[in-house]
From TrEMBL:
Cellular component annotations (GO), alphabetically ordered: cytosolic large ribosomal subunit
Residue span(s) of domain Large ribosomal subunit protein uL30 N-terminal eukaryotes: 11-82
Pfam families: Ribosomal_L30, Ribosomal_L30_N
NCBIfam families, alphabetized: uL30_euk (TIGR01310)
Keywords: Coiled coil, Ribonucleoprotein, Ribosomal protein, RNA-binding
Protein name: 60S ribosomal protein L7
Keyword Ribonucleoprotein: yes
């Protein structure tokens, strides 16, 4: 008898539509998440293979140099080291009492603040610009380890004119996929070897903001190669030691 008087509440049409829409959206989201997960898994495998290839390339180059040095020594000749292709330049002086010409050159090199650092390609225009600002910067030829540590620890990308930390390979892929750079190891390889897309890769990297060096500077007023010792100027391979103290 009670069933005769049981009133079944009527669900409004709007709620039914909302429920159907939510279910449809949940299904689409689940499919998209599964597809993205599969794509990321494939990308990880590809990036790992590329990294292995790069490591082999670096190792082969080092072995070749060692063999050539030994061969030259055995034959009683001199081995001429290959000319460096990459410079890392860091600004060590502020803006006080800075004349207009060096200030403009520092702006062109993207060294706008104290302790800013950038990668540069070794060519005649860059060398001439560095000569103009030599008393205000320290520069040299960084090692692979130094380049890798800088990009991993202090690397920021330029995305839509914003400074974005490189926390994911997708950030690099979205900006540099046209140049064949799809991960952070690809970016390191392009910078260190000064590849054909070095300009695009280097412009993507925001200038590095380094800290004051542990233990301080020796003497900013004097050059690194002077007899009494100083800080500004070309340090060649010894720039890695300075970067390590500032990173």
């Amino acid at each position: 008898m009670a069933e005769r008087y049981l009133v079944i509440p009527d669900v409004p049409e709007q709620l039914k539509l909302k429920k159907e829409t939510n279910e449809k959206l949940a299904e689409e989201k689940a499919v998209a998440v599964a597809a993205k997960k599969k794509l990321r898994s494939e990308m990880r495998g590809e990036l790992k293979a590329r990294q292995t290839k790069f490591e082999k390339e670096y190792s082969d180059n080092n072995k070749k140099l060692i063999e050539l040095r030994r061969q030259a020594k055995a034959e009683g000749n001199f081995f001429v080291e290959p000319e460096p292709k990459l410079i890392f330049c860091v600004r060590i002086v502020g803006i006080i009492k800075l004349s207009p010409k060096p200030r403009k050159v520092l702006q062109l090199l993207r060294l706008r603040q104290l302790h800013n650092g950038v990668f540069l390609k070794v060519n005649k225009p860059i060398i001439n610009m560095l000569k103009l600002v030599q008393p205000y910067v320290a520069f040299g030829y960084p090692s692979l380890k130094t380049v890798r540590e800088l990009i991993y620890k202090r690397g920021f990308g330029k995305v839509n004119k914003q400074r974005i930390p490189l926390t994911d390979n997708e950030i690099i892929t979205e900006s540099l996929s046209e140049q064949g750079i799809v991960g952070i190891e690809d970016l390191i390889h392009e910078i260190y070897t000064v590849g054909p897309n070095f300009k695009k890769a280097n412009n993507f990297l925001w200038p590095f903001k380094l800290s004051s060096p542990k233990g301080g500077f020796t003497c900013k007023r004097h050059g690194f190669n002077e007899q009494r010792g100083g800080d500004w100027g070309n340090r060649e391979e010894q720039i890695s030691a300075l970067i390590k103290r500032m990173n």
